[in-house]
Specification:
The chain is an all-alpha fold. It is built from 14 helices and no strands. The chain starts with 5 loop residues before the first helix and ends in a 6-residue tail after the last helix.
């Protein structure tokens, strides 16, 4: 199967990043409110500068992640998109090569591992901690999949490398389809995706920073709120109340936001002709 042109992949990646910023995503940075000492402009710039590396023709997963992180840090001097790049790079490689996501993940090699480890060290994400095996401060292992499996219990993005991105297929895309069926506009569809991740699984960024019980408490809090909300009414006020509450507690559901970008990107790529199954 023929793949998509790198230029189109880069355009769709940037559009997915911007779509996520336009949506009201409680606890995260978005057009309705800044937070966590970051503003929307940082993320717009990050999308702009990381797109060329993410879509670079012929590059592997690791090289795309490292290129995106390097460009981002040079432009905004902080980690705004490591998780996004880790999720979107395999999708970009699959789309360009006309391959399935599983096939891309199954063929990750030592070069991918070395490049991803270098990118993680550069980005220095919050709450990373230390690991007995495959710690990012050590020499990268030959198998990136093995390293990701080691981190899967504390990082849902790492876990995605072992499940073939099952969360996108089982949580994100059904939420998007449901939102569209309900007649929501694109921005509120993106909000629906973010909320679906928040209510379904504890956010691993919150868990790393504040502990697993807090992450599970936030998940239950969001699920309870959503039981009384109808997104077709565009419930800005109650979602902004939740947004302010999470930010006041220093809780940033960054993993859910990263998966939201990847879900929008996946949908855009498949609409353009990519076949990921």
């Amino acid at each position: 199967m023929s793949g998509l042109a790198p230029g189109l992949i880069g355009t769709l990646y940037r559009a997915a990043c911007l779509a996520e910023l336009d949506a009201l995503k409680p606890g995260n940075v978005h057009a309705y409110a800044a937070g966590h000492r970051m503003v929307v402009a940082d993320f717009v710039t990050s999308a702009d500068v990381s797109a060329p590396g993410l879509a670079r023709a012929g590059s592997g997963v690791g090289a795309r992640v490292r290129a995106g992180v390097t460009a981002t840090l040079a432009a905004v001097a902080q980690n705004t998109n490591l998780g996004i790049l880790l999720l979107c790079a395999p999708l970009a490689v699959a789309a360009e090569g006309g391959r399935s996501v599983k096939a891309v993940l199954d063929t990750l090699d030592a070069a991918d591992s070395e490049a991803v480890f270098a990118a993680i060290r550069l980005a220095n994400p919050g709450g990373l901690g230390r690991a007995e095996r495959h710690d990012v401060s050590a020499v990268a292992p030959a198998s990136l999949r093995a390293a990701m499996a080691e981190a899967a219990h504390r990082d849902r993005i790492a876990g995605a490398y072992g499940t073939g991105f099952a969360d996108i297929v089982e949580i994100g895309l059904p939420a998007l389809a449901g939102a569209r069926a309900a007649g929501l506009d694109p921005t509120w569809c993106t909000t629906a995706i973010h909320l679906a991740y928040l209510r379904t699984v504890p956010d691993s960024h919150i868990a790393r920073k504040a502990g697993a019980p807090v992450a599970e408490s936030v998940r239950r809090e969001v699920a309870t709120l959503l039981d009384s909300l109808d997104l077709t009414t565009r419930p800005v006020e109650p979602l902004l109340v939740l947004d302010a509450s999470l930010k006041a507690r220093g809780l940033n559901p960054g993993t859910s936001a990263d998966f939201t970008v990847a879900t929008v990107f996946w949908d855009a790529l498949t609409t353009a002709g990519a076949a990921f199954a």
